[in-house]
Amino acid sequence: MTQYLEFEKPLAEIEGKAEELRALARANEEMDMADEAAALDVKAEQLLKDLYKELTPWRKCQVARHPERPHCRDYIDALFTEYTPLAGDRNFADDLAVMGGLARFNDQPVMVIGHEKGSNTKARILHNFGMARPEGYRKAVRLMEMAGRFGLPVVTLVDTTGAYPGKGAEERGQSEAIARSTEMSLKIGVPVVSVIIGEGGSGGAVAFATANRVAMLEHAVYSVISPEGCASILWKDAEKMREAAEALRLTAQNLHELAVINRIIPEPLGGAHRDAKTTMASVGLAIQDMLDELKDLDGAELIKDRRQKFLDIGSKGLAA
């Protein structure tokens, strides 16, 4: 059963009525509701197009957080073969908010790393809602270092509201771990490509998205802070999250203009959760294209390219 977002309530009513008519027809074979149901389907499709025609930044945040949106585990299962998970930071523990390991992508050996939010209540608690602790970022450092040693491209899948802000995480050096992860992303001499598949929140996202090429799904968001957090700091009122979302310029379209990301991956009408298979296929094509762009660069050139990408952020938007 589809979970509808707040702004999709009119759509929920129409699609619900269409399903009721079909259920009545199934229960009573003498009732012919096909035409009525088909008419509602047409109306629902048009409304869906209208709703998603020009989503506001806040509505994009809602779509990016949709619980049925495909997560890191889904992408790994769909796009990678021979995935061998690697656990632990060899220091404190294994953080299940971060998953990663060796795999093949289109028969090419790679290291894949990503945030995993979980797809149901039990899994979300297990994976801490995708909010990594220091050991998660130190795990990522270990895997990136291994990738550099063996000459494996690194593919990262970003989907986190941000690093976990708990007392234990701070005691174990959360900011230092994020900085080390970002540093390792910058200095390894192999291709690093990243896709923001849902939320890209704060330094927790930058630690994985410090890449040669960064792509974003059409309705994903990427920002230094969540709209609610921004509103709480600037206006002392979390209810001003809509204004904060506008000010943060966190949409894929905004960030492409500013050269923060390199490409936008289209989503099916209604968001990635309405057609996960097509979305994941599109992400796979984007990853392959980004890897192809980098395949002829040697280690030193890759490092220079990656650093230059971050030095150029904002220049395109300022020039415009």
Structure commentary:
Helices cover 51% and strands 16% of the residues. The chain is of the alpha/beta class and 320 residues long. The protein folds into two domains: 6-53; 61-319, 2-enoyl-CoA Hydratase, Chain A, domain 1. Strands 1, 2, 3, 4, 5, 6, 7 and 8 form an eight-stranded mixed beta sheet that branches. A hairpin with a 2-residue loop joins strand 2 and strand 3 (108-115). The model has no long low-confidence stretch (mean pLDDT 93).
Outline:
With 320 residues, this protein is of the alpha/beta class. The protein has helices at 9-27, 34-53, 57-64, 72-79, 121-126, 134-150, 167-171, 174-187, 202-209, 227-234, 241-248, 252-257, 276-294, 299-311, 315-319; strands at 80-85, 98-105, 108-115, 154-160, 192-201, 213-217, 221-223, 263-265. It has two domains: 6-53; 61-319, Alpha-Beta Complex (2-enoyl-CoA Hydratase, Chain A, domain 1), CATH 3.90.226.10.
CATH topology of the largest domain: 2-enoyl-CoA Hydratase, Chain A, domain 1
Shape label = globular
- Helix/strand order, N-terminal first: HHHHEEEHHEHHEHEEHHHEHHH
Strand content: 15-25%
- Mean model confidence by pLDDT: 93
**Could you say what the CATH architecture of the largest domain is?**
Alpha-Beta Complex
What can be said about the biggest beta sheet? Answer: 8 strands, mixed
Give the termini distance in whole angstroms.
Answer: 45 Å
Give me some keywords for this one.
2 domains; eight-stranded mixed sheet; alpha/beta; 320 residues; 2-enoyl-CoA Hydratase, Chain A, domain 1; globular; 15 helices
